[in-house]
Amino acid sequence: MATVRPFRGLRPAPELAGRIAALPYDVMDSAEARAITAGNPYSFLRVTKAEVDLPPDIDPQAPAVYAQARATLDAFVAKGWLTQDSAPRFYIYKQTMGGHTQIGLVAAAALDEYEQGIIKKHELTRPDKELDRVNHIAATGAQTGAVFLTYRADAAINALIANCRQQPPVYDFTAADGIGHTLHVVDDPAAIDALEQAFRRVPALYIADGHHRSAAAARVRAERRAANPGHTGREDYNRFLVVIFPHDQVRIMDYNRVVADLAGRTLADLLAAVGEKFRVEDAAAGRPAAPRTFGMYLAGRWHKLTARDGTFDTADPEGRLDVTILQQNLLAPLLGIGDPRTDKRIGFVGGIRGLAELEKLVDSGRYAVAFALYPTAVDELMAIADRGAIMPPKSTWFEPKLRDAMIIHLI
User: Which of 38, 169, 212, 328 is most buried (most C-beta within 10 Å)?
Assistant: First the structure.
């Protein structure tokens, strides 16, 4: 059973919401964050990537960065840019990207259920990224960005959420990237109770995006529990900030690969070796039209690769993923990418950047070859999570991204 709770959200003044709300900290580097925040004193990147207000040579994980994050968050509150709701609320967050719309419930989920596997994982975390979020949460006393959860769609929940959206929204703005963001506050006790009860009938929630934030929240909870002799289990640090979307509204895009060199192979040698496991055809463009097919951009030309029968296990949910097929049949044996989580020769490019980004990276000489993949399906993600299994790294790219600071959960 999924236990979700309302909470006293810390959130922007309505007239500032569009200027404060920011892309997640992990979709950009420090230089990009500095460029985005230039001329916008309200940007919440000043909290989530606080190095933007410190010397440019500072380590983004230096203690001074986390101290700066806390100071900036406190300043936003002191100036009235952020205020906390007076009583626990749910929130309804709608995002619109082109013709795609997704509507989710913003809530506080139970870290007990995360640790028990009711909130299911599908990805391993990197220790350095996890520690960064631990330090950020501990310093600020806040979960500043939400974890993106999904669940198997439920008509009764859809109806409840639609009813909660009958009142005017508190925020309704379009960000600079063209994505629309709308937020409704649910403050009616009957509606809050109905949503809680409805989610208690949901057998499992699935982490779509935010494994590092989830793991970090659990670690901070463990530290605070150990330091609190009066721990009851009802403290805010026992829960973490989530937005929960029905699975049929979730959009997964391709997550593509680039490799720095050909591992000593010539072009002809690589194409011949690839042909043993894939049918290789010339292609005018690189976007795969179906699963088990791949685009390979090499020396200024696209090739279509189709996995040959027998190169993957059709009965194994992990083994038949396109990312697994590519890794096991090409990246590892032919290009020497043994562990894509740690190998510095491989890079990953989210589908939102388009295939032109792959061409640019290879044409520039920075990388030698690029691979375009067909998107992983949300049903595949849930099937693997249900088995307690782990997907290969960088298997999914979710769009649109949740904006940080739409709602903040104080702990």
Answer: 212
